[in-house]
Amino acid sequence: MGMPNPSALAEAMSRLWAQFLPQIEERVSTLESAAAALAEGSLTRAQCEQASSAAHNLAGVLGTFGLDRGTELAREAELLYSSGPSTSPMLNGHPAALASQLRGIVAARRR
Q: At a CB cut-off of 8 Å and minimum separation 6, what does 21 contact?
């Protein structure tokens, strides 16, 4: 078999991106909500588990679309939330920054 047509492959990837974009944005929203709860001191174990799962899924899907920086950030968020609720001063603002950067990466890919 021959090599696939690059423009056909790009079109297929664009269709897949459009198909998965609502889920991707929902996962980023989950991370934003968890970061806000952490900042308020109200982050629950359930929210941590949801955020960790969302970050794990984001890491995989963003990598599929060649968004390697997004994968790195999502993995970092996954590790952060997998440890459970924390109010460590070292985390101050970091989860929100991760979510914001992920939102920017997703928005940039939309174009």
A: 106, 110
Q: How many residues does the chain have?
A: 111
CB-CB contact of 98 with 77 (8 Å): yes
Question: Residues 110, 21: contact at Cβ < 8 Å?
Answer: yes
* CA dist., res. 29 & res. 73, Å (int): 15
Closest C-alpha to 102, from 64, 62, 65, 60: 62
**pLDDT band (50, 70, 90) for residue 90:** very low
pTM: 0.89
Tokens of 17: 């991106």
Angle 48-81-38 (CA atoms, 0-180°, nearest 5)? 65
